[in-house]
Amino acid sequence: MDWEQWQHSWDRQQEWYMPDREERIRVMLDLVEAAAGPSPRVLDLACGPATISRRLFARLPAATSVGIDRDPALLRIAERSFDGDVRITFATADLNTADWSAIFADEPFDAILTATATHWMTATALARLYRDLVKLLRPGGIFLNADHMPDPANPLLNALDDKVQQAHRKLASENGALDWDHWWTTAAADPQLAEDVAASREILREHTTGQEHPADWHLTRLREAGFLEAGVVWRSVTDAVVAAIR
Ligand SMILES: C[S@@+](CC[C@H](N)C(=O)[O-])C[C@H]1O[C@@H](n2cnc3c(N)ncnc32)[C@H](O)[C@@H]1O
Q: What is the rounded average pLDDT for all residues in the chain?
């Protein structure tokens, strides 16, 4: 597969889990444009193959972006598919380390965006990450996090949502979409990705601790971290986008 096909295949795999993925990215970019205008400097946090940056450039061609992630295979797809695009740079960083943001110089970001990543972190590491993000944003800058944020107070609603999602996934599989495990098996079989996938699997084996939190948990931690405001700007039954203003 070429790099564009890998992007497409990643999107289909993510949509297998989140049929409304594009809608949440659109809501995030609406707010970035409102907060920072047509040429924001964005941090694409835990970027994977940099889906958010791709949507950002499609909408705001004068934007610039820095993509960071710890996964070598996803970063490879990102770097190769953006080859020659001077608007974006990539760096390897593990958000669980205390000094992950040391790689950034003094220039603050207008917006920091992340999707489907923070539930991979422990509560302690994520609270620390939120404090780091305040320091990386300019005053008035915006942070947006789209992730699984189920509310344990609603087990019946969550179970109904699970039924809806299972039906969607069955249909998507019948139409050829791959789930997470099958996607990685396919990536491992591509000679141009095989070595990176082996390294990715090693990283995933070592870091399996993560926690999901309800949206209110995120809002409280964001305010405690020093953001001026924090609110829910989109939600489904079990997922949400939270936003915070520096
Ligand atoms: C499900 S993917 C989402 C990627 C992208 N944001 C998207 O929406 O397509 C989750 C990403 O978070 C990254 N990630 C998870 N924990 C991380 C950490 N501690 N440091 C850096 N990246 C991390 C993974 O490597 C992966 O690329």
A: 96
Residue 107 pLDDT: 86
Write out 91-112 in H/E/C secondary structure: EECCCCCCCHHHHCCCCCEEEE
The string of pLDDT tens digits covering residues 123-160 is 999 999 999 999 999 999 999 999 999 999 999 999 99
Query: Tell me, what CATH number does 136's domain have?
Result: 3.40.50.150
DSSP collapsed to 3 states, 152-211: CCCHHHHHHHHHHHHHHHHHHHHCCCCCHHHHHHHHHCCCCCHHHHHHHHHHHHHCCCCC
Q: Which residue ranges have their beta carbon within 6 Å of ligand 1?
A: 14, 46-48, 51-52, 69-71, 74, 94-96, 115-117, 120
Total domains present in the chain: 1
Nearest CA to ligand 1 atom 23: 46
Supply the residue whose CA is at minimum distance from atom 26 of ligand 1.
48
| Amino acid code (one letter) for 244 | A
Could you tell me the two tokens for 98? 């205390």
Q: Which domain holds residue 187?
A: 3-245
pLDDT band at 204 (very low <50, low <70, confident <90, very high): confident
Number of H helices, E strands in the chain: 9, 7
What are residue 245's DSSP bridge partners? Answer: 142, 229
Pairing of strands 239-245, 137-148: antiparallel
